[in-house]
Every structure is written in C-alpha cells, then in structure tokens.
TrEMBL record:
It comes from Sinimarinibacterium flocculans. This is Uncharacterized protein.
Length: 70
C-alpha cells in the first residue's frame, strides 16, 4: 500500500470535493488521472450508481491532512 503522504495536494482536494459534494464520474472526467491514482491508493471507489465515494482510508487520509499528522 502506498503511504498517504504520497498523495498530491490536488488528489486530496479532489477527495474533499468527492466527499463534500458527491460528484459523479461524468463531472470528474477531466481529472481522471487523479481519480485513477486515488483508486490505486484505495481512497475512492465507484458505488452502484456510478458515483465516486470516499473510502474509509480516504477519510483517514483527509483527517490526517486536516490535523497535520500525515
């Protein structure tokens, strides 16, 4: 597994956007490289409706970033 500190700020920002707004995959096509990278980090997945969802690991990464513990 890749450590959370290897996620870029853009990827973390995307995770926050997914978490906050529940954006669907169509709205994120322009950022697909980041979506793929997040999936490789086990931070996001697609639900049954095709929406991107933050995983527990993704929530932990955001929490670590917010608290500065990375």
């Amino acid at each position: 597994m890749i450590p959370s500190h290897s996620l870029t700020d853009m990827q973390v920002g995307l995770m926050r956007r997914i978490h906050r707004r529940g954006d669907d995959a169509e709205n994120l096509l322009l950022l697909m490289d980041d979506v793929i990278a997040l999936a490789r980090h086990d931070c996001v997945h697609f639900d049954a409706q095709g929406h991107l969802v933050l995983t527990q690991r993704g929530e932990r990464v955001l929490s670590e970033r917010a608290s500065g513990t990375r």
